[in-house]
Write the structure tokens for this entry.
Amino acid sequence: MTTPVIIDCDPGHDDALALLLALGSPGLDLLGVTTVAGNQTLEKTTRNAQRILALAGAGTIPVAAGAGRPLVGALTVAADIHGESGLDGPDLDGPVAEVAGVHAVELMRRLIRARDEPVTLIATGPLTNVALLLSLHPEVLPRIAEVVFMGGSTERGNTTPYGEFNIVTDPEAADIVLRSGLRTTMIGLNVTHQALATDEIIAEFRAMDTRVGSVCAELMTFFADAYRRNFGFGHPPVHDPVAVARVIDPAIVRTEKVAVAVELAGTYTRGATVADLHRRTGREPNADVAVGLDVESFWRLLMAAVRNVSTAGTAGSVSRPSAPA
């Protein structure tokens, strides 16, 4: 039994690993990939999603570009972390399939309606596309099993003192998703900072002696340098694959049911996720919030998936069928 998923992303080094984890996991059926502006501009994040799918020999999976800016305000990209391309480090030039001829929100709507069983949305970038889908097409809500998003924190932030990048980039979108009434899981920095790409992890990627393993090692080497330079971290946290791991094996990520609100107006706290861990507000829980990670099982799952993708090779066709009507 596989879980049908759509990944909405802004690749991004850790988004790339999240895509590879999904592609290499037999328990997931990746229906499509949608892109949003975040780590880099929409043009670049879309190109990066195509490059990772091509690397994995998965070019038949439809890709659609979505929102190029947040619902409110201007876009600020993370070139200091992900470089000018959004995937600086390895050479990923090569042929890619064309993007689907529809907006990301429309592709999500079509893919969801085409399935008999509910679809899980995994969001690893700003939640703009997901918020637009829920607002413009409320009829699909009963067909969505869950929204699992990487974003927020129960502790400190990484973009502002209390704000995590994906949520700070589009707080209004995150607010819409968290107030939607859907089953929602928040995978925040408090947990993803435990998933560190150590020197040993990078060496394990390289030791696979495959194109995919080498790309992962090069991505994490660049990422490590960026985190060392910007945050003083000894090893970089790979945030986004933790959200995918939660869907594959929920036991890997421990969660608690919590009332979560997004701060929209604070002078110093706009974009903060206010998680009522001690139930002080009296509000009903609206999210499963990640509070713990089985680090060893997470890396074992990710390594197995990358090996699976490597074994599948990169010789698959990059042709793509039309998106479902």
In short: Residues 3-312 form a domain with the Inosine-uridine Nucleoside N-ribohydrolase; Chain A fold (CATH 3.90.245.10). The chain has twelve helices and ten strands. Confidence is low (pLDDT under 50) at residues 314-321. Strands lie at 3-9, 28-35, 63-65, 119-123, 144-150, 184-187, 253-258, 260-262, 273-275, 287-293.
